[in-house]
UniProtKB/TrEMBL annotation:
Source organism per UniProt: Methylobacterium dankookense
Domain Response regulatory: residue ranges: 339-456
This enzyme's EC code(s): 2.7.13.3
Family matches, as Pfam families: HATPase_c (PF02518), HisKA (PF00512), Response_reg (PF00072)
The name this protein goes by in its record: histidine kinase
Alphabetized GO MF terms: phosphorelay sensor kinase activity
Signal sequence annotation: none
Gene3D superfamilies with a match to the protein in the record: 1.10.287.130, 3.40.50.2300, Histidine kinase-like ATPase, C-terminal domain
């Protein structure tokens, strides 16, 4: 005997759905009753009333079925949208993690190359060798800038960057910006002028500086004659900062495209700007747009081909005074005889760093991990004056373990420099908690020497 399996019961409706359906039916019922009453008044007969009721019943059933179908389709559409949104967010997070890991691996050999090149530059070289070394240095700097910018874009798109809004003195920021770009402008025969009232704005100083650096850099790059004006003015209850140049300008069809990745406006603009046909990477304005959006600072562009360009950024004022900036006094100390201990698992980086420090007359010992350091100390090695430690070591080990070990063996403070090609904020927080100085790779030799000099004092 065949036993038929009963069909599965439909999924129970939620309380909210049932309430909505009841409310709709109540409204329909009220409308039907009103219609019936009007029909009764007009026709005045029971048969007409019966016909009217049947007609209206069919309309109600049809309308109810139509509404139910629409509700089900809407529910399925919403579920599909939620799933697509989650998939896109997961893909974006995966892209950010991949770029962070790839950047770490790419910056490691780049760091070794920069250190080796700096050690080479300290040696006596002929003129041609010096020129070639300079060209290699510029090429490595371009690669470094590209990797870091791509990582910045990925972080901004993923929403990882969280602006730290604080009161900031706008005249101080613009004055420092002008001082850093003035030599480049003068080299091209350009005037670089800053006009700014004494105002304080509410912003993230690091992000705002990056934005304005890119804008001023573009203005100088694409201006062959005349100058660049950085102008801050009060506009209503806001402060507007304009970067105005007398360069070649931007055609109307290009104004929206200049904020896209890798769009450089063609070689023509670079030649007109006096850059010998070598435009930039095409990422500066893309970073500007994303950072301005993250800060909530409106960005606008106006330009006339052949006359120049104005890029405007609107900032909110701050009623609070700017936070004071603490500057460390310069220390005139040499590195001669300083005992420096390096822990670095990348052999090429360790060798280049050791050679560079020895060129500075320091006494250097290099190890790959904590086991090597412990063996040397237990064998009677001289205690170091300062440590330079890589954060990520082999087999998941951390360079800070070396700092903890050596600090426990002495009663006096032991200065530590932590190096890494990982730009995650967690490492920065950990370094701050341990009281060590964090240096991002690729290491800039001049920065490292200045930091060593200061810490050894």
């Amino acid at each position: 005997m065949n036993v038929r399996t009963p069909p599965p019961a439909p999924a129970p409706e939620s309380e909210a759905e049932l309430r909505r359906r009841i409310e709709k039916l109540e409204r329909i019922n009220a409308a039907l009753m009103a219609h019936v009453e009007r029909s009764t008044d007009q026709q005045g007969g029971s048969y007409a009333l019966f016909q009217t009721a049947i007609t209206l019943e069919g309309r109600v059933r049809s309308r109810t079925e139509e509404l139910t179908g629409l509700m089900h389709r809407l529910e399925r559409s919403n579920a599909a949208l939620v799933a697509a949104k989650e998939e896109a967010e997961n893909a974006n997070r995966s892209k950010t993690r991949f770029l962070a890991a790839a950047s770490h691996d790419l910056l490691q050999p780049l760091n070794a190359a920069r250190l080796s090149l700096s050690a080479l530059a300290d040696l006596p070289l002929c003129h041609d060798a010096t020129v070639v070394a300079g060209q290699v240095e510029r090429g490595l700097q371009t690669i470094e800038d590209l990797i870091k910018t791509l990582l910045d874009i990925s972080k901004l798109d993923a929403g990882i960057v969280r602006p730290q809004l604080r009161p900031l003195s706008l005249p101080d920021l613009l004055a420092g910006l002008a001082a850093s770009f003035k030599p480049f402008a003068e080299r091209k025969g350009l005037r670089l002028v800053v006009r700014c009232p004494d105002v304080t704005v509410e912003t993230d100083g690091v992000l705002l500086q990056r934005i304005l650096q890119n804008l001023v850099s573009n203005a100088v790059r694409y201006t062959a004659s005349g100058g660049v004006l950085i102008l801050a003015r009060t506009r209503g209850d806001r402060i507007r900062v304009d970067v105005i140049d007398t360069g070649c300008g931007i055609a109307a069809e290009e104004r929206d495209l200049v904020f896209d990745e890798f769009y450089r406006g063609g070689t023509r603009r670079a030649v007109q700007g006096g850059e010998s046909g070598e435009p930039g990477l095409g990422l500066g304005l893309s970073i500007v747009r994303r950072m301005a959006a993250a800060l909530g600072h409106p960005l606008a562009l106006a330009s006339r081909p052949g006359h120049g360009t104005r890029v405007s950024l609107t900032l909110p004022p701050s009623a609070a005074p700017p936070e004071p900036e603490i500057r460390a006094a310069p220390v005139a100390t040499r590195l001669s005889g300083a005992r420096i201990l390096i822990v670095e698992n990348d052999a090429s980086t360790a060798d280049a760093l050791k050679r560079l420090l020895q060129n500075w007359d320091a006494r250097v010992a290099a190890f790959r991990d904590l086991a090597g350091v412990r063996s040397a100390i237990e064998g009677g090695a001289t205690a170091p004056d300062i440590l330079i430690l890589e954060y990520h070591l082999d087999d998941g080990a951390c360079g800070l373990e070396v700092a903890h070990y050596l600090r426990a063996l002495r009663s006096t403070p032991l200065p530590v420099i932590l190096t890494t090609a990982d730009y995650s904020p967690e490492i920065e927080a950990e370094a701050e908690a341990c009281g060590v100085e964090l240096v991002r790779k690729p290491i800039k030799p001049a920065q490292l020497r200045s930091l060593l000099t200061y810490m050894l004092a």
